[in-house]
Design a protein that fits this description.
Radius of gyration: 22 Å
Helix content: 40-55%
Structural class: alpha/beta
Strand order of the largest sheet: 2-1-3-10-4-11
Length: 318
């Protein structure tokens, strides 16, 4: 009788635990990317998804949801069930800038999302079309000043916008903004000569190598090995935009700690893999695996930095 009662109790305990175990397993894990196929974000997200899928032994897919400088993707994940099955491949553009550039923020990064894992850092460069009459930054500034307001610059993210606002403020540029749903379509318009310049990620490097674009300056503190002859802004005598252009993985608010830690370990293992490392190196993207507490501190610190820079640049929308 005692044995039977014990067996029945054990079975009931297993049945009670079964739904929780099942909820932690996703038939499909989706990484929602805020920019279109062909972007640096998309490239890294797909390399990451492939390795994560191998570890989880279930499908991990990338779903591109471009638009509104990454806010459409962020709002999609914000509304998702907090079970770790739908995650945001977030950037500083949609989580550090968007909440501070609008008077009525669509969300707050630390309140509305669960930080899962740090992924890495972008490198941004100033590109012009090959047809633009400037072969270096000094010539670019001089040409734009000759025709104030007559040239266009493209943006495919909030970071593109912020970086160009910095250049305009520091060098006295007056150009017209043309917004796009991501860097790939903006780059194509610059190649065609309909837009003259953009500050964008290293996705423009292959077009520099084939002669369709020119890279005039690196926005960061050091040169990129992809284009070692391209100087930094500091080398050109222009103050650098002192921000960290980060990328990371987030879930909606309320993801259980155990689920977040499990996903964090999976992501960090993927970042150490040969395939992801090669994809990042080819894309000029710097991987940066860290602990969750360190990543959460970065988000908090950069939240304050971006808020201040947006105020200094006068980017707060009416």
């Amino acid at each position: 009788m005692l044995i039977a009662r014990f067996a029945r109790s054990a079975v009931l305990s297993l049945l009670a635990a079964a739904p929780a175990a099942k909820a932690a397993d996703c038939p499909v894990t989706t990484l929602v990317a805020p920019f279109p196929a062909g972007s640096t974000t998309d490239t890294i997200a797909r390399a990451l998804a492939k390795d994560m899928g191998t570890q989880l032994t279930t499908a991990v897919v990338v779903e591109n949801k471009p638009g509104a400088e990454g806010q459409i993707a962020a709002l999609d994940v914000l509304k998702a069930k907090p079970d770790g099955c739908r995650l945001l491949f977030a950037t500083s553009g949609n989580l550090s800038i968007a909440p501070h550039i609008r008077r009525q923020p669509p969300y707050e990064a630390r309140r509305d999302f669960t930080a899962i894992a740090d992924i890495g850092r972008y490198t941004y460069l100033l590109y012009t079309s090959a047809s633009f009459p400037a072969r270096n930054y000094a010539e670019f500034v001089a040409q734009v000043k000759r025709k104030p307001g007559q040239y266009n610059y493209g943006t495919g993210s909030n970071t593109n916008l912020m970086a160009f606002a910095h250049l305009s403020q520091k060098s006295g540029l007056e150009m017209t903004r043309i917004p796009f749903k991501g860097e790939p379509p903006a780059i194509q318009e610059i190649i065609a000569g309909r837009v003259q310049a953009i500050v964008a990620t290293t996705m423009g490097v292959p077009h520099v190598e084939n002669g369709r674009l020119r890279a005039l300056a690196v926005m960061g503190s050091r040169r990129t090995e992809l284009l070692p002859d391209t100087p930094t802004l500091a080398e050109l005598g222009v103050p650098a935009l002192d921000i960290v252009p980060w990328a990371g993985l987030f879930g909606p608010a309320g993801v259980p700690s155990a689920t977040a830690e499990r996903l964090h370990a999976i992501v960090n293992k993927a970042l150490a893999s040969k395939e992801v490392s090669q994809a990042a190196r080819a894309a000029g993207f710097e991987l940066n695996a860290s602990g969750r507490p360190e990543f959460e501190r970065l988000i908090a610190e950069q939240d304050a930095v971006y808020r201040q820079k947006i105020q200094e640049l006068g980017l707060l929308e009416d």
